[in-house]
Amino acid sequence: MTQRSSTQRLIVIGNGMAGARTVEEILARNGDFQITMFGDEPYGNYNRIMLSNLLAGVEDEAGIFLNDLSWYADNNITLHAGVRISKIDRSKKFVIAEDGTKTPYDKLIIATGSSSWTPPIKNIHNPKRGFHQGVFAFRTLDDTRGMIRYARDHERAVVIGGGLLGLEAARGLQNHLSHVTLLHAMGHLMERQLDERAGKMLQASVEGKLGIEVVTNAMTTEILGKDRVTGVKLADGREIPCDVVVIAAGIRPNTQMVADSGLAVERGIVVDDQMRVQGQDDIYSVGECAQHRGNLYGLVAPLWDQAKVLADHITGRDVEAAYTGSKLSTKLKVAGIDVASMGLIEPETDDEVIIYNEPKKGVYKQLIIRDGVLAGAILVGDNRKAANLIQAFDRAQALPEERAEMLFDIGGPAGEVAPADMPDDAQVCNCNGVSKGAICGVVNAGCKTVSGVMDKTRAGKGCGTCKPLVQRIVEWAAGGEAEEDPAASWYVPGVPMPKPELMAAIRKYELKSVSAVFEKLVPGGEHDAKSKMGLASLLKMMWADQYEDERDARFINDRVHGNIQKDGTFSVVPQMKGGVTTPAELKRIAEVAEKYKVPMVKLTGGQRIDLLGIPKEQLPAMWADLDMPSGYAYAKSFRTVKTCVGSDFCRFGVGDSTALGIAIEERFQGLEGPGKMKLAVTGCPRNCAEAYVKDLGVVAIDGGKWEIYVGGAAGAHIRKGDLLATVGSAEEVIQLTGRFLQYYRENANWLERTYAFVPRVGIERIREIVVEDSDGIALELDAAVEEAVQSYKDPWKERAVPATPGQFRTSLPLTVLPQVPVRA
Amino acid sequence: MTIAPVEKTVLGPLEEIPFGEGRTYAVGDEMIAVFRLRDGSLRAVSAVCPHKGGPLADGQIDNKVVVCPLHLYAWDLATGCSQSGQPPIDVYPVRVDGDQIILGD
């Protein structure tokens, strides 16, 4: 018996775009496999999308090949081109080719793709030679070659199928014949991507600009002509003369051989999130033939994603890598006309729909917005906003209040300046002083993701208002090659998971410390400094007092319970609930300020007294002398409740805002969240406490009622909060406040303030959950926030015994450090 | 990468630096931040952020970088190179001898 090498034998059935791409991804991960590929077609792999260009004569054959035969040789891949596999023997682990040869495998990838679908049409086939002479499918290089050869000597073509492929075929055929008719069985073109109005607009452009005749509701029933095609007949009896027929009526996955081999096949080959064929350990499927979570994908972007996951998994780079499905969007030129489409085509009753229609120019735009996020978009005739819309759709981003901004470049403030018009030294980020030139320099050096550029330049990392402009500059500088940042949807940059999956994994594996999360959920267990604070906050929210605190996971503010200032000193802010204090407290604060020679005593916007410029090493002594609780002017946490005078003294006050503000602050003090939470309660709609622009603002109205507003802001972003509910008692205000804060804590992205969170989720949805309890989770939210508030401990109490050695030692030469003696 | 020349100096007991954190030492005219990584190894770099003078020893670290607490600019702890468009910082040889931190070769 020969000794078997540790190198595994990998067979890939299918040498098309999915199969070859998967192999490329495996090679890029240094996968240790001896690879054999079988391809139905007698070529190396080529870009099927480019067949339209080949037909249209704008590309030659050499230009459409992705990997020529030398690539296979260079990578030690054995290619059997033109050899079809007829069966997979799962029990003995080999594949049988049509020529009878058997090839054993350890791992098998099925990437058999799809074939052109032929509708049931009389006379379409000739019993002796396949298709009737003059009838072509449009799927392979051979199809395309045959079509070009035949079309040269003929005059009139009919293309059956008014989808993307049919339109491309019709446009391409115009280069070879004088007359092309496009027949579509449905009522309008591209009905899967476009609504009726957009489809009609496209039809008008195709007919008017290109001279292609389009017939809709055209069900072809028969090919006319005995020896050669003379025309086609439609179900309504019409006859259309032609001498070439091209079928582009759709595709069907190639699964027959796989089903015959006893593998799970429904519409496609059924795979799990690792692209493993259902019930199989060593057999995978990827591309158009694979059915994932009930979906088949016929576009390249999902296929690329699948190839990456499969490669990560099979090479052991990340065995738990998971493909979770793709949101489909297309942006292309259909027969020379700009078209983009994503998501829903038709709105439902409650959806917000924005339509712009300019038939004379052939421009049509439609947006469907559901629950505040883009659920669908169609653009015909003008694709300039397509990239932004696809991004908003993919990432479920918050949308601008002014919806028209999504469809047009509306003249406005600096945010709308075109990158090309800006001088290189124009300052883009006013917080961190980053110029357009600096951003372009990073892009030119090879960093083409927005977040990568932001990381490297710090642009957009201050108040954040310049982020859209940074994005436009990156896209412009990258010449349309800006790359999707895979980390854009992750909760923190160092753990590759969106928040819901991250929380599920944390619960599943009971990960109670930040390092446990890195070690379990990051490939290679790599820690990431920039992710620590977000993870610490999340874990504390999830586990309350079971959270295992690690000091190095804390930001410096949370290590010393003060807000770091520009010179490395800290600010000390004692708690002053609802902005109310006493002469005794004021006196004590004044005495401490004098004793420690505090450089600045300042009233804050949140109605507290800020003692600024305190050296780190003085913090414990000051806390002891003050003997007041921490006011939490640091951390991503509940900060303060601003109040007005309310009903005690104010002539107009209709509710006791001061008492309610104090009660709310007392209950939720120190509560951590994804962002800071600033609240206010005001005693009448005159709104002296500015409650309309707080994360949560409460307004007393006449009749003993309270209005609760959420999602307001008056910082770098300004937004009036949305009315969540009007209630009749202070107790209800406190209950809904806790419930809303908990829902926000559980569902917002890291550093996502409520002004972004509320419009993203939608106030109606939040109201359903928080007020109406539509999802039946209100009691859970109440219980979770109760558990969190019960675990509150005043951090300033730890002053007597520092948590770590040197916790309060200075880090800058503010005072003379003890000099380390240098040896002579 | 600039490995700054420094005379051999005993900075003090290792236990002064918790795992995953940094502390600042004054050595001659230099302010040097020493970090103790979670794997136990040490890194030493200039203590003052060249961007706006932030205290790097107060920054968060992982096994590769330190992030300044003021504006979150990041530096590679092994090379001193900036990851965010700033000048590099100095790095110093540092090691443990017994329970003492030794700066310099």
Structure description:
The complex is a heterodimer of chains A (824) and B (105). Chain A is α/β, with parallel strands linked by helices. Helix content of chain A is 29%, strand content 22%. In chain A, 44% of the residues are buried. Chain B starts with a strand and ends with a strand. Chain B is globular, with a radius of gyration of 12 Å. The relative contact order of chain B is 0.27. Classes of the chains: A alpha/beta (824), B mainly beta (105). At the A-B interface, α11, α15 and α16 of A face β2, β3, β6 and β7 of B.
Give a topology summary:
The complex is a heterodimer of chains A (824) and B (105).
Chain A: E1 8-13, H1 17-28, E2 33-39, E3 45-46, H2 51-56, E4 65-67, H3 69-74, E5 78-81, E6 85-89, E7 94-97, E8 102-104, E9 107-110, E10 114-116, E11 125-126, E12 130-131, E13 135-137, H4 141-151, E14 156-160, H5 164-173, E15 179-183, H6 196-210, E16 213-215, E17 220-224, E18 231-234, E19 239-241, E20 244-247, E21 251-253, H7 256-260, E22 269-271, E23 283-285, E24 290-292, E25 295-296, H8 300-315, E26 329-334, E27 337-343, E28 352-358, E29 363-370, E30 373-380, H9 386-395, E31 427-429, E32 434-435, H10 436-444, H11 450-457, H12 467-477, H13 499-508, H14 514-521, H15 529-543, H16 556-560, E33 563-564, E34 570-572, H17 583-595, E35 600-603, E36 609-614, H18 619-626, E37 638-643, H19 657-668, E38 677-682, E39 696-701, E40 705-710, E41 713-714, E42 718-719, E43 722-727, H20 730-747, H21 754-761, H22 763-770, H23 778-790
Parallel strand pairs in A: 1-2, 1-9, 2-5, 9-23, 13-20, 14-15, 14-20, 15-16, 22-24, 37-38, 38-39
Antiparallel strand pairs in A: 3-4, 6-7, 7-8, 10-21, 11-12, 17-18, 18-19, 24-25, 26-27, 27-30, 28-29, 29-30, 31-32, 33-34, 34-36, 35-36, 39-40, 40-43, 41-42
Helix pairs in contact in A: 1-8, 10-11, 10-12, 19-20, 20-23
Chain B: E1 2-3, E2 9-13, E3 22-27, E4 30-36, E5 42-46, E6 60-61, E7 65-67, E8 74-76, E9 90-92, E10 94-97, E11 100-103
Parallel strand pairs in B: 1-9
Antiparallel strand pairs in B: 2-11, 3-4, 4-5, 5-9, 6-7, 7-8, 10-11
